[in-house]
Predict the 3D structure of the following.
Amino acid sequence: MGMSVTISVATEQDAEQIFKLQYLCFQSEAALYGNYRIDPLVQSLDSVRQEVTADCVFVARLGDEVVGSVRGRVAEDGSAAIGRLCVHPRLQGHGIGARLLRAAEGALAQERGATRFRLHTGHRSEGNLRLYRRVGYETVGTSEGTDGVPMIVLEKPAGTYATTA
């Protein structure tokens, strides 16, 4: 019998695995845009460590291996920015991303007072858009990432986090 994937709060000891996983997972996004300087690929390990310490960060584990992660933080206006959702390529398509989102949304709403959730993804990232729309996010606008990639901004009210599947 195989091991099951568990979702838990990230610890400082997870930072290096998160950093490496992020680098692996965002290669396909970089290829999609022909831009290998996208923010997740140029983020430093120290910056990831700071986020794990300060933000709401969850990981998916398969045994001792971190196979997914997501981060979120609540702004003063009550909106929670969720980002850097990634799942190891060999495990994508099995609901791990949705489970990570549900964990982050729950903690951000219940523990940190988020009133709505906001995330963004590249305009060509159809798989990401399908996931986000399936779990209740709606397009509210566009923006340009600091890396020059055109982004779609999506939101949903915090009261709907429990329905994320």
The mean pLDDT is 92.
